Structure formats: structure tokens, C-alpha cells
Amino acid sequence: MITRVFLTVVAAAGVALAVPAVASAASGPVVQPLAVTAADQQAVLDYWTPERMAALTQPASDNPPKSGPDGAPWTASNAVTKTVGRLFFTDHGEDASCTATVVDSANRSTIVTAGHCVNSTDLLGNDDQWNAHSMFVPGYHDGQAPYGKFVGRFGVADRTWLENDQINGQKFDAYDQAFVVLNRGAHGIPVQDKVGAAQQIGFDRPGDANVVQFGYPRASADPAREGLPEYIGSRLAFCTGPTREWLGTPDFPDSPNQWGTACVMGGGSSGGPRLRDFNPKTGLGVVVGDNTEAGFFDAAGHACERDAGCTRYLVGPQFTKAITKPLFEAAQHA
């Protein structure tokens, strides 16, 4: 049996101030206010105490360093360590984190992430809610916020995603993508100006390509790497290589156009960018998709069960003009 596992991570917390989503049969962007007033913004900043953020970091292990194309720490200091960061939020009363990326936008305040990092159901696929206490920390590392903390102002997701039932991946997984419009940070500076960089976003790019995928995982699919700093939520990790399209299995088909490369990054890497045309010196590329779930392939490239000794890939929707571009336009002009 294939189990759909979103790559968000959670920890026990207080009650979320969630707002029920309004579903519609038509697709298209929904712009949801998150924290608009100054008082609401301060409440989010006050909520994310150092102790609460630290609770979303897993214990370290004594495993020796191990890395490869399917998972390694990102150690260069360039645009990636400015534009990619951790997205903290509360999901159905539990604190959680994902990964998000600053993309070049008209309002200079837009980040892209996974749909379930912005709007989610409970574990049974019911009680759809917008996540609360949304806060982005670009360049997060070892508990530090080198460019400050930015509170989510609006969440932007597709109406179809708001109907997600956690079961029908063939219908909903293509829509597991979203944007967050951030409030300006200290001294009224938008995030894109504060970090001094932004990634480009691409629509309808071919999925079959060499890519680099980034995330802040709090787990690794490889026991030998479990507990290393890049797999406990402390530091940025990446995977790189050629992609494969994950279509699910005959019993559990997935949406078409789900792509990714071999990768051991686990929970917390959801929403991280899949970049092509990436320059490792500058740290800049084109975001063509986001991390959402795991898919498994055998040596011949056929889909297989997760426990059948096959290779784990980190996959997610390829950004398109039909789904992604309307969301992006709504976000960058919000």
C-alpha cells in the first residue's frame, strides 16, 4: 500500500486561531488574510518565542557526517542562504514548519511554498483550515534569524486545494502549491530588499531536467544521516540530480506532472524549491516546483512500494501557467 505522506513537521502547541476555508467547485486563487493589523502581526511575533521555535528542532545524533547527491548540507554562502528559509505556523493546534522561498515579485514580499504549508486538513482529511501564526525566517540556521522575521499577511492557494481530502492524490496533488504574502519587516523593509536577492519563478518548464532541491528537513530517510545538523531542522540541506515523474501506483495514482530527484530529506522539507538552471556560485536559479511528498522507483524506473527496497525521490508539482501563474499574480499584487 502506498501512503501519501506530506513532508510537514509538527510539534504539540496551543490552540490555533484557524479560519475555516471556503471550498468551491471552480479552480483559481483564494487570497486569505492571515495577520493584517499591527496587533495581529505582533501577536504572531510574540507567539514564536525562542523556546517554541527550538521545540521544532530534533535532537542531534552521534552519526558521523555523510552526504551525497541525494542529501547533503548546503555550505556555500550565496543567494540560496538568503532566499530560502523556514516557514513556521500552527496547523490544527500543533506547531509545524515547512520550507519557503523568496521569489521575484512586484510587491517584493512574496514567498512560494507547498499548499499544505498554508492550508490543510486534519489527518483524516476533514476540517480544512488556513494555518495560523505564519512566520517566515529567511536564511534560518542554528536558531538564528540573520535577516529578521516576517509575518504572513495573506495566504494564497487554489480553490481546488481547499477541497483536499488527503486521499485523492490524482485530483488534488497538482494543487499542492501556495504563496504567502509577507508583511514588511523591521523599519518597513520588504523581505526581498532585506535579503538583497530573489529567485526567479518559471511556468510550464519541462519537468525532465537536472535540478537542485532545498529544504529544512527534520528527518532523513537514511538512518545513517538521521540526527545530523542538516536533518534536525537546524540547517539548510539539498539534493541534486536528474528528475523522474511520479505518477503513483496503479492502486494509488497521483496527479501527472509530479517531478523530483532522488532525495532523503524528510519532514520539514515540504514547500522547498525545485530549481533548474541553478548556478551554484551565485545560488540563483529558476523555481519550477515545490517539494510535497515521497515517491519510490526501482532500478528500472518503475514506481514501487515504499518498503520494497526502492530509491526514494522527493517530488512535487511542476509549476504551470494554468495553476501556478494565477496564484503568483494574485500574491504579487496583494
From TrEMBL:
The keyword Signal applies. The keyword Signal applies. This is Trypsin-like serine protease. Residues 57-76 are annotated as: Disordered. Keywords: Signal. Residues 1-25 form the signal peptide.
